[in-house]
Amino acid sequence: MTTGSNSGEVLGMDWSKQPGESEISSTLSDFEDRPVVDSSPFIVVHGAGSFGHFQASKSGVHKGGLYQPLVKAGFVATRISVTKLNLEIVRALAREGIPSIGMSPFSCGWSTRERNIASADLSAVAKAIESGLVPVLHGDAVLDDLLDCTILSGDVIISHLAAHLKPEYVVFLTDVSGVYDRPPSDPNAVLLREIAVAKDGSWSIEKPTFQNKNKQVETSVAAHDTTGGMLTKISEAAAIAKLGIDVYIVKAATSHALKAFSGELKDNLPDDWLGTAIRFSNK
Amino acid sequence: MTTGSNSGEVLGMDWSKQPGESEISSTLSDFEDRPVVDSSPFIVVHGAGSFGHFQASKSGVHKGGLYQPLVKAGFVATRISVTKLNLEIVRALAREGIPSIGMSPFSCGWSTRERNIASADLSAVAKAIESGLVPVLHGDAVLDDLLDCTILSGDVIISHLAAHLKPEYVVFLTDVSGVYDRPPSDPNAVLLREIAVAKDGSWSIEKPTFQNKNKQVETSVAAHDTTGGMLTKISEAAAIAKLGIDVYIVKAATSHALKAFSGELKDNLPDDWLGTAIRFSNK
């Protein structure tokens, strides 16, 4: 991405009315001589965050049973909440001149079988990328072959996209600096800067060096999170790294995140980089 | 539909926060003993209205050329506007207890070839209906095999759905009572209550009886409408009627619209019915 903070110069792409505006605020001739943001092709995937987890967990959508009125209502409520968040993210990107296009897994016809992806045709996503658009996907309530319905998490979607579209690298943006050896709220928590993933999918901490080589990582999962929290992120990230695709887990809106997006971490991790790199290791 | 105005009793399905609310307003236990709206399966399709036509027409999205910055921006802006409208319609239906699910043609992977549908897999829509959900589709900006991109109108979508899913009948809701012999703003305009469609697709006015049997219908198309206005509606309706599926064009939110939805017009049009029925005629 090469956007920076130049939203005043690029061709903004959200022309819908903002609250309080009575008319479209710009004339189109304002746009014609503005550059379009230029970047390598990429895909954005977001979770539901506070927009969907409440609806999903309280009604048990992730456990299935769509024939039950409460689950059906929760399914509808979850989709409303996540598509609302998706629209806000698409609009925020469009305002910065990124040609973002919301694509919902449910609408894409994706379905699961006991929460694993059963069918997820990527041709519409691939065609959007070929057309120079930036697909914005999200964790979603979907139909499940065995459970009737469930929640497909954004992390599982990323894994699936990575396996089939083979990106150069994957960046997970979070609200903490990366993966710690214990919950980051613990003052003694240590940031794991590099994790190596072996052929068999097992993973070990490369940096920093701990005395105990087989150190365990303690994680916590928020009670409202129906899709697994940090532990799911690590195991999905390890599955991606096993394919030879570097994964960076990094805090959003930091210089470290920008470095991860630029691709410059591929060959070396600078000493001052704060984040977790998860990489395949042949050793 | 059997909804009426019983939104206080049915299981509301929009649990997202309303503007000004700081917390989810109901507890889930409130919902558990409420009935779910029961109805025959149906699909909702809406156009873009004032939400998308401005964006589409000003930038020329319907004429293609996605490689041009202005068209690309218009494409993104159009999709934002129509998905915003779709979300509002899904939420309004969900609040009335209808298990509505937004499905965007672009996300469904539908594409056109010179504005006609080239590929539109209906399996995701069919699966949603089988699961007891109500798909809510909309006119959308889509990729076109020859033009790069164009606008797929809601009317063309309805035609395609009708041809493949064979509903009992199709209802077009508009802001006027039906099809008139000239623009309804003209004080001499006469409502055409019944139009017969022949095997060859040609159509003639059955009711009321005009002296001139080959009477022409004058229509106007709003300048901002990229997809054809009433003339497109009539010809899409005639194409549906030719399949033996009755089409009713009727004013939204009236007792006439309710009659059309109920299916009771299938065998006879009451004398006091205001609307246009378009039907296949073997004569």
From TrEMBL, chains A, B:
- Superkingdom, according to UniProt? Eukaryota
Q: Keyword set for this entry? A: ATP-binding, Isoprene biosynthesis, Kinase, Nucleotide-binding, Transferase
Q: Where is this region: Disordered?
A: 1-32
Task: Enumerate the Pfam families for this protein.
Answer: AA_kinase (PF00696)
CDD domains assigned to the protein according to its UniProt record, in alphabetical order: AAK_FomA-like (cd04241)
Q: EC number(s) on record?
A: 2.7.4.26
**Listed InterPro entries:** AceGlu_kinase-like_sf (IPR036393), Asp/Glu/Uridylate_kinase (IPR001048), Fosfomycin_R_FomA-type (IPR024192)
> For the Aspartate/glutamate/uridylate kinase domain, which residue ranges apply?
40-250
Catalyzed reactions per annotation = isopentenyl phosphate + ATP = isopentenyl diphosphate + ADP
Query: Into which family does the record put it?
Result: Belongs to the isopentenyl phosphate kinase family.
Mind telling me what this protein is named? Answer: Isopentenyl phosphate kinase
Record the organism. Prunus mume (Japanese apricot)
